[in-house]
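Quick board copy: two proteins, each given as sequence then tokens.
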Amino acid sequence: MNLSRVNIYSFDIEEELKKLPQKPGVYIMHDKHDTIIYVGKAINLKNRVRQYFQSSRNLTPKIQQMVTHIQYFEYIITDSELEALVLESNLIKEHRPKYNTMLKDDKNYPYIKVTTNEPYPRVLFARQRGKDKAKYFGPYTSSKSIKDTIELMRKIYFIRTCNRNLPKDIGKERPCLYYHIKQCKAPCQGYISEADYKVSIEKVLEFLNGNYGLLIKDLEDKMKDAAQLMEFEAAAEYRDLLNSVKQITQKQKITSTELEDRDIIALATAGNEAVVQVFFIRNGKLIGRDHFYLTGASQETKSSIITSFIKQFYAGTPFVPRELIIGEGVEEKEILEEWLTSKRGQKVYIKVPVKGEKEKLVELARKNASLVLQQDTEKIKREEAKTIGALKQLSELLEIPGLYRVEAFDISNISGFESVGSMIVYENGKPKRNDYRKFKIKWVKGPDDYASMEEVLTRRFTHGLREEQELKDKMLEEEYGSFNRYPDLILMDGGKGQVNIALKVLNKLNMNMAVCGMVKDDNHRTRGLYYNNQEIPIDKNSEAFKLITRIQDETHRFAIEYHRQLRGKTQVHSILDDIEGIGEKRRRALMKHFQSLDEIKAATMEELAQVENMNKLAAKQVYDFFH
């Protein structure tokens, strides 16, 4: 496998197109910010990549727009088309490119795990299917259903819940509470033999394999026997257990006489949004369903969307069924089947039914997908109004075209102790938490928010300029963080003072960016924005105002959270500890004498010198620290 290396600053697309190999592989499109905007695979890289840059090529508007943003591309040669498909799926999941059709939900479905590799097996909830000798059942779509089933198995068959190493630890500790409430037979004490315990485990395995009849009959018999003996409390317990079993088994709706594992997949689309509904059938029973949102589906064919979904969903799930029953044909059916087969370890089939029971199931899944999409249309519109719409309003209010990335900063301290700065990032009206950054104030002593803010901004943009230079020097051979991605707008929590601090830093670094501050009223509530040396009123009911409020709250939260972490590490600390020559005794004496930190700050050197254990030199150091 070979990866091409490019220099973004000397990349000639026409020349590089001529160098493309006629081999299978994956191509990666970058924009001017070095962001990956599209990932695709090809049987022949030369033919496929060139198609994007041919004006005569019939490209969709979405792809045409994507091409205008391509600054350079790179590619990875693979040994086969199957290897290219796997690599494409991994890269899409890792980088989530803007112009790929993306699966929003990245869900992992849980399993029931029976540790049959242990002498005294346990029944556990498992998030992933491990490579061990345990037996796994599922995956299931309902975590609650799994937990109910496990609890039921423990009550009926007295399965242990502890993680003791048996039989090695037998007799080392007293039996736990479950023994005393008669839900465990205490194998940890040797009260049940390994052979008898395994009989119970075999019954658990029968139940999990779908053989419910034996357990139901057994519980019915015990309930009747207890009632005849007038042991009504025991009979009531068996009745409750029986009802629990019936409730769980009723969830396993029979959908097929063929005891196969299959997923029923159907699609509904509306504009840029798409919903895929999946029915999960295991051993011929419908165990659950789920729906998944995909973005970037505008002007994509249904076949292309389903293909993207299959690649992304089954790349992330440990279980692959024997059959995928889908509503539309998929692209590259054979290579997808080969890939899924390699993941399952057995032949996997992708089928498009045209009649019969399977076709009815696909149609049912499609109706469910349409219903979800219909119900969520208004929700999607509200979300867009809160994010993209709000950012557009702010862009128009400040007359900043193309507003996309906003960075906001805050300083948090308690009387100057452990001052910290926070940087939060919003892109397209949504928080981009991977780009959040924390700063522990290093250059500023004492409580000085303006100086602390100057330090944070200086460090943030100096780091960005350094990353930018390293990108040039190292020709993209290393990955970098978010510092070299600059904001379209810097949002300061304060007004004119903080804006001037930011402009001072930018001028010093020869950088030009829009800086906006929040003007507060007498109750410390934002009443307007300070931009370009003037206060701009803002409608408090507008989405732009609500977005600014969310950014402001998030900035405070992030800074305070970081400050709380530092305080948790250092426990109790006083700003007085940061003054040279002031130890624990003098600190206590100062606090006892003046009662508050404000009084210490306001004291003269003579007043400070009168405190117990203080001398003139120590008094001068305290005075100079605050003044």
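And the next:
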Amino acid sequence: MHPLLVGAILGPSLIPQPSHLTYLEGGFRGVPAVEFSGKFATRDQQWLKAVLANVLPITKHSADNIVFRIDPTIVGDEAYHLDVTPHNITLAASASKGLYWSLQTLRQLRQDNTIPCVSIQDAPAFAWRGVMLDEGRHFMGPKFVKHLLDIISLYKFNVLHWHLTDDQGWRIEIKSHPELTRVGAWRKEADGTRTGGFYTQDQVREMVAYAANRNVTIVPEIEMPGHSTAAIASDPYLTCTQAKIAVPSTWGVFGRVYCAGRESSYNFLDDVLGEVLNLFPSHYIHIGGDEVPKGDWHSCPDCQDRMKAEGLQNEEQLQTYFMGRIAGTLADHDRNAIGWDDIMKGGTQKDAVIQVWNDQKIPEQAITQGNRVILSPQSNCYLNTPPENLPLSAVYAYDPLAGISNPTMVLGCETTLWSENITTKNCLTMFLPRGLAMSEIFWNGAQHNFPAFQTRVNRHMAFMESAGIDYGSSDQNLVKYTVAPKLAQSSCRLTAALGLPRLELRYTLDGTAPKANSPTAVTSIDWPVGKTLRVAPFRNGRSMQDPVEFQTTKSLAYGSTITFQTLPLAPYTTAGPQGLTDGLLGTTNFHDGVWLGWEGLDLVATCDLGREQTIREVALHCLQEMRSWIMMPKSVRYETSSNGHDWQPLGEVDNTIQDTTEGWIVHWFTCRPNASISARYIRITAQTYGKLPAWHNGAGGDAWVFADEFAVR
């Protein structure tokens, strides 16, 4: 059993703080006998005894007693009373759920072999206290999910919103459609490796039962009609174009979505949901609905026919129709649909619960039209946001009911762990300790005494340390890297700002992932240009984050002077004038200070090699991240000169990357003349893509050109 379940050593530092708490003289030190008072099912007695055994040693006969009492006068099935005297512990609630939470409070109260005497009356402010775990981007696996369930249960979260499908992976076995896991659960990464995974139906049942034993309900999310590329890669006939595509390995909003016109899409989802409903007893089923590009629907004859037949005015209303069909299927099985607030764009979604992540005005809009809401504003609740951008103090300042006219329509709150940049290695360092603030707010509502809360958090972090539970910083990223060239030494220097004590950097230069016995550094690493550095932070012998890779390349242009005829624009200017010849290639974060950017302009620059050189190849390294308005140049033209005034054409390379291709793409625009030539100067002209087209979410805006290195060989 995980150390977290064997009795916390925290003393009077409860999180979430009970509604009413009084500390009394003395403490309970006995080995009690167990009594049950009131109407208990045999199953509940066995369950509560099993939980108690992880908190206190018990015996059959003792002068000391622990009494579980069903008390119908206590309002709310999660409310409880807890009274501890030197010889008796009484836990009272109107239902077994409340008794379970009282045991979690007892677990946190225990210090060594003593439980302080207290009188507690406690009840949650919100019925829905959720944690959303996204496994569509990164598969976590049963062991990690159980570990997370142990933790969230201790802190009285009662919902695990399990995001099981997305563009990058389908994570649940559907027996009627085995292709979903045979194809959709796996993807090919940029380095050629195959990654992924999925849960069998037996494993899902195991997770549901494990959660239920910890008072947590698992609510599955089957994303639709967008964020469904993995399913479409498994069966192209689910989409309007019916074109074969691969499961993507990059993040973003992808244009392929379920066809809303053909009946086959609804039949497929009926099959999927039929099996999902048999696996999850939750009354609520999440059906997604966020970030749905509608370009395919606009040009699809089947979708346009459906719109005419149903009297729909636009594609937003077509999504309303689509989601309404799915919600109706769930209602036929006595289940309730939840959708992200995007589903409101085309009109009212009757009876659906709206999960709000966008504008703060949306809860009122949803409530006005009669929908209950779950509050998950990304500015407050998205714990996948780095701690330096959303520190513990800012999380604790969240007031869920601010601006809410009718709080009775608020089902509850939820914090999210979207996994574009989260894996099993850093999930807990992102969640903790900030998740403790969410725990307290979701249980008690808005809080105002942050210094007192910080004191309690510090004690919980000390406990986590002793229990081997990973956690991160309250207000800093676990590690923040910066890189800089050292041209005179033909090397680069990585500098790391560390967010926790006793972190150490471990690294490799041979392309392998760092291990516990890899070379170590404290805060900086120098490595030669031409090598690839992979580095990760370690603590207590464990990797706390997936490795970050820094690639370098060396050519005849290395260290050469670059003169820009068109200057890059802030904030993409950090690399400076020699950013194109410093040997550093940019990472998958285009804010890393290595990438240079031009908005709506051609990149025009001249490279001075310093002397005449024999040139056989020239190349410019560019980036496309289409949804971020970064497009490949239409072409890159190269010219040479011996004196910097008289120019001769060397060659022009046209772009071959589709502008609609989603995700992160890097490409060398390589030109090889028919015969080697001699020159000192090379002029580069990368022609901007121009205005973004009508199908783009930034239609009419200026595209960016991004480049990080120019090479000559």
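Board note added afterward: The first strand starts at residue 20 and ends at 28.
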